[in-house]
Specification:
By secondary structure, the protein is an alpha/beta fold. It has one domain (16-196, 229-254): Rossmann fold, CATH 3.40.50.720. It is 44% helix and 14% strand. This is (-)-isopiperitenol/(-)-carveol dehydrogenase, mitochondrial-like.
Length: 261
């Protein structure tokens, strides 16, 4: 991703950000964008080789990688603690790590092992990130920004993938509660809800390459001439993380090209 032109203000200068699920896809694009806008970025993921590669390509003075399985609350706590120990602060948490359904789960034959797996990562993992980032910000008097990745599935129903839809609905509930509770501390909490975007996770889940996936989903948007890319989601995350959205909290920013209009 190209550096911002020199006459453009770096929107995250002096900020420290954690990005979970930062080794690829939306997380990688956001890590690069945040770093380009002056933030020091900690990438957290379980894809160690990919995460290290991304961090090294961004630069050791700007970006580092930490192994973290968000389903394990203790690992999330250590991630936050180590970030503060290394950089002295935490200003932004982008809780982006998540998984998709392993099968087309229907209500009438819902597999609870699959439901537990997706809830552990998408819901418990996001809750752990919000909890420990918020605690650190409150304790240090930081008026930070917490952004969570939701989905169009958070506001619609599905003909299948019931467990995934349930998990994304829960993220909106978490965001709305957290925004009310943390607002008195000056901490903003929002979500970004992408339409179907071609990432390694979605492409592998649907067993398609990026071009096939985009060709399948692009007609569902009423905005013609633009194909949704990960950098569009990164731009939305930057807006919510930066002072450009200083009076926005409790908001679900939908990035869908008019799909739900």
């Amino acid at each position: 991703m190209a550096q911002p032109p020199p006459n453009i203000t770096k929107k995250l200068e002096g900020k420290v950000a954690i990005i979970t699920g930062g080794a690829r896809g939306i997380g990688e694009a956001t890590a690069r964008l945040f770093a380009n806008h002056g933030a020091r970025v900690v990438i957290a993921d379980i894809q160690d080789e990919e995460g290290q590669t991304v961090a090294e390509s961004i630069g050791s003075e700007t970006c580092s990688y930490v192994h973290c399985d968000v389903a394990d609350e203790e690992q999330v706590k250590k991630l936050v603690d180590s970030t503060i120990h290394t950089y002295g602060q935490l200003d932004i948490m982008f809780s982006n790590a998540g998984v998709f359904s392993k099968s087309k789960q229907l209500v009438i034959d819902l597999d609870f092992a699959g439901l537990d797996r997706i809830m552990a990562i998408n819901v418990r993992g996001t809750a752990a990130c919000v909890k420990h980032a918020a605690k650190a910000m409150v304790e240090r008097g930081v008026k930070g920004s917490i952004v969570c990745t939701a989905s169009l599935a958070a506001t619609t129903g599905g003909e299948s993938w019931t467990d995934y839809y349930m998990s994304k609905h829960a993220i909106l509930g978490l965001m709305r509660c957290a925004s009310k509770q943390l607002g008195p501390h000056g901490i903003r909490v929002n979500t970004v809800s992408p339409f179907a975007v071609a990432t390694p996770l979605t492409c592998s889940s649907f067993q398609m390459d990026a071009e096939e996936f985009e060709k399948l989903n692009q007609p569902l948007s009423c905005l013609k001439g633009t194909i949704l890319k990960v950098n569009h989601i990164a731009d939305a995350a930057l807006f919510l993380a930066s002072d450009d959205s200083a009076f926005i909290t409790g908001h679900n920013l939908v990035v869908d090209g008019g799909c739900t209009v």
